[in-house]
Design goal:
Pfam families: Aminotran_3. Pathway: Amino-acid biosynthesis. Keywords: Amino-acid biosynthesis, Aminotransferase, Pyridoxal phosphate, Transferase. With about 400 residues, this protein is α/β, with parallel strands linked by helices. The chain is built from 13 helices and 17 strands. The chain folds into two domains: about 5-55 and about 300-390, Aspartate Aminotransferase, domain 1 (Alpha-Beta Complex), CATH 3.90.1150.10; about 70-300, Type I PLP-dependent aspartate aminotransferase-like (Major domain) (Aspartate Aminotransferase, domain 2, 3-Layer(aba) Sandwich). Helices cover about 35% and strands about 20% of the residues. A hairpin with a 4-residue loop joins strand 2 and strand 3 (about 40). It is globular and about 65 Å long.
Length: about 400
């Protein structure tokens, strides 16, 4: 029988530069590969496995739901979908409604459609332009890849939908506004762009300006949402009230889910938007259980304790290796270290895997950390011990 790597190379399109490892099981922040080797996971599947690998509550909830119904269409009522929407809205603290899709890109597509429809008003010029930031990342569909402020991602796939304008930073947004601007779309911490938090005061001033001009504020919380930065939403941490928010990744704990939520609760009519799989019984059961777990984890103080412990360990690691790192960045459990050059970054990631800890790259030169939110102190200690061994070999 062919091994998995041979099967992958023969039958799967090569859209990923895969590391030479195949994981077969996991428990919280611990992974085991096909050879029985164990690793500490500081990636959580790129901020997805929010409640850890093999979480018993989540797996039990999913197993019980599969015995009843996995899927029926959105032409009928789905109890866990309504309950999941209620839990998301209540946790956010905003007066909004939700739409469920299957990914962050779909959530951002929904956000863009909401904004574009909002720009259609009788008696005034159509407003359709959406301003995004350089180094942003909003997805890989044709529209969301064009919304992404990274020119290298626009190669080969045109022509694109028009109407996107790129600001080099928050400060430049105001100068780009015109009569056709309907929305500004930002990540409060740019993930793929290098774990770069926005300045809180500048964000608050921008939101105030935009809302005074009836320009929608879209916050892409696909990576920052669901307690990743310490609050349920980074928008809560920044003390702003967006008009539209997108969620995905950690909200399903590993089950594919995307959510767009908006205060424009009557913007869509039946037929304006939809998804065959979005919000089905299985995915929204996952959302309900993940939110119950994390709400309890947050209320108990365990989340803030874990964030503080991870931050202290990262700070110590950074201070021990200022010859390798130039800055410590991020918020909550979405954090990173700027590495002096890209070659050193690649070597650290390779050595880390060999030493039993998984870490990520972000941007050109950032070592990114996105551990499960439920990671234990023992797992944190073990992971940083492995990282110390990894960098000692440079």
């Amino acid at each position: 029988m062919m091994d998995i790597q041979q099967l992958d190379k023969k039958y799967v399109l090569p859209t990923y530069a895969r590391a030479d490892v195949e994981f077969v099981s996991g428990k919280n922040a611990r992974l085991t590969d096909a050879n029985g080797k164990e690793y500490i996971d500081f990636t959580s599947g790129i901020a997805v496995v929010s409640v850890g690998h093999g979480n018993e509550r989540l797996t039990n909830a999913l197993c019980e739901q599969t015995k009843k119904l996995i899927h029926m269409s959105n032409l009928y009522y789905t109890a866990p979908q309504a309950l999941a929407a209620k839990k998301i809205v209540e946790a956010s603290g905003y007066d909004m409604k939700c739409f469920f899709g299957n990914s962050g890109a779909e959530a951002n597509e929904g956000a863009i459609k909401i904004a574009r429809k909002y720009g259609e008003k009788d008696g005034v010029p159509k407003r359709y332009k959406i301003i995004t930031l350089d180094h942003s990342f909003h997805g890989r569909t044709i529209t969301t890849v064009k919304a992404t402020g990274q020119e290298s991602m626009h190669n080969y796939f045109g022509p694109f939908p028009d109407g996107f304008v790129y600001a080099k930073d928050i400060d430049e947004v105001e100068s780009l506004l015109d009569d056709h601007t309907v929305a500004v779309m930002i990540e409060l911490v740019q993930g793929e762009g290098g774990v770069q938090p926005q300045d809180k005061q500048k964000v608050q001033e921008l939101v105030k300006l935009l809302q005074s001009k009836d320009i929608l504020v879209i916050v892409d919380e696909v990576q920052t949402g669901v307690y990743r930065t310490g609050k349920f939403l980074a928008s809560n941490l920044y003390e702003i009230e967006p008009d539209i928010i997108s969620l995905a990744k950690g909200v399903g704990g590993g089950v594919p889910v995307g959510v767009v939520m908006t205060s424009k609760k009557d913007i869509f009519s039946p037929g304006d938007h939809g998804s065959t799989f979005g919000g089905n019984f299985l995915s929204t059961t996952a959302v309900c259980e993940v939110l119950d777990i994390l709400n309890e984890y947050d209320a108990s103080g365990a989340l803030s304790d874990g964030i503080a412990y991870f931050d202290a360990a990262l700070e110590k690691f950074y201070n021990n290796h200022t010859n390798l790192f130039t800055a410590k960045v991020g918020l909550g459990m979405m954090c990173g270290l700027r590495v002096k050059d890209s070659e050193t970054l690649s070597a650290i990631i390779k050595n880390a895997q060999e030493n039993g800890v998984m870490v990520l790259k972000a941007g050109r030169n950032t070592l990114r950390f996105l551990p499960p939110l439920t990671i234990t102190k023992e797992e944190i200690d073990e992971g940083f011990k492995a990282l110390e061994s990894a960098v000692s070999k440079l």
